[in-house]
Amino acid sequence: MTKAERCENLERVNDQYAANPCHGTLIEFIGQITLVLLDMNKPTKANIPTATLRELAMFDEARKLFPGVKRGNDTEFTNYRKKHKDWKKYLPDLLGCVAYQISERKALESKGDWVPPQWCAFSVWINERRFERSMQ
């Protein structure tokens, strides 16, 4: 539904209640307007940059290697593309970043240094750009 269609729906609902005040309660009216407004603020697929199957596969390799909690590939990849405007720049290096952080963690454990007991969730790793730590 386009923004114009949503606005037309809102106007139609408003006109219905203005024409017949006995049509329902004010709470029902506010509830309908709230639903329309919430629908208007939902991100659309047009806001998410498109990707090729090769890019999706590259991301999936990194996601599968990551030892922490993760959601489905489509969900994680959509999140990655929405959060980072420069996602294409870092995509080829994600697999190497995951591998590097795994090896770095094992090296710290073998030296006897303290290492957090659990990996963060993959979405946290992506959202906080933790992959950049291994690129420095």
What does this structure look like?
This protein has 136 residues and is mainly alpha-helical. The chain folds into 2 domains: 3-42; 49-135, no CATH class. The chain is built from 7 helices and no strands. Helix 1 packs antiparallel against helix 2 and helix 3 (53-65) crosses helix 4. The longest helix has 18 residues, at 94-111. It starts with a helix and ends in a 9-residue tail after the last helix.
Mean pLDDT: 80
Q: Roughly what fraction of the amino acids lie in strands?
A: under 5%
Output the structural class: mainly alpha
Distance between the termini: 44 Å
Rounded to an integer in angstroms, the radius of gyration calculated over CA atoms is 23 Å
The helix-strand sequence is HHHHHHH
**Low-pLDDT sequence parts:** none
- The biggest beta sheet, please? none
Global morphology: elongated
**Number of strand elements:** 0
Tell me the domain tally: 2
Count of separate DSSP helical elements: 7
Q: What percentage of residues falls in helices of 4 or more residues?
A: 55-70%
List the helices and strands and how they pair.
Elements: H1 3-19, H2 26-40, H3 53-65, H4 73-83, H5 87-90, H6 94-111, H7 122-127
